[in-house]
Amino acid sequence: MSLEAPRKNVGHDLDGAARRVIKLGQDPVSAVVQERVDEIGLLNVYHQAKEFEHRVTGARTYPHPDMLLQFLEELLENVEPLAYSVLPDR
After folding, report:
1. What are the residues whose beta carbons fall under 8 Å from the beta carbon of 63, sequence distance 6 or more?
2. For all residues of the chain together, what is the average pLDDT?
3. pLDDT tens digit string along 46-86?
4. Positive or negative, the Cα torsion across 2, 23, 76, 78?
5. Quick one: which of 3, 16, 27, 40 has the most CB atoms within 10 Å?
6. What is the band of 4 on the pLDDT scale with cuts at 50, 70, 90?
7. DSSP conformation letters of 27-60
8. Cβ atoms < 10 Å from Cβ of 18
9. Confidence of residue 1 (pLDDT cuts 50, 70, 90)
10. Between helices 65-85 and 37-48, what is the axis angle to 10°?
11. Residue range 20-39: mean pLDDT, rounded
12. Which of 78, 58, 61 has the alpha carbon at shortest distance from 70?
């Protein structure tokens, strides 16, 4: 399975990717994303503007780092078994 089609459909749109995950309803992943959809939307603004890649001055509002780390840990815990389940047997 190629990742090119999903990559073209979502691109760098974190908000769009989050909405697709929620719409698919693949619990527990969709539930984890749903809980953090507001923070994902906040990050999406900066991600779309490539502000994480380039130095930008001025005031910014980001989600708290502890919340982001917790979200990523929860997401990885739930995505890892799905990722391994689609790998071919070795």
Report:
1. 39, 42, 43
2. 84
3. 888 888 888 888 888 888 899 989 999 999 998 888 788 88
4. negative
5. 40
6. low
7. TTHHHHHHHTHHHHHHHHHHHHTTTTTS---S--
8. 22
9. very low
10. 100
11. 90
12. 78
Asked whether residue 3 carries a pLDDT value surpassing 60, the answer given is no
Q: Tokens representing 11?
A: 């691109």
CB atoms within 10 A of CB 14: 19
- Comparing CA positions, the residue from 21, 12, 18, 17 lying closest to residue 52 is 12
Per-residue tokens: 88: 């071919």
Stated length of the chain: 90
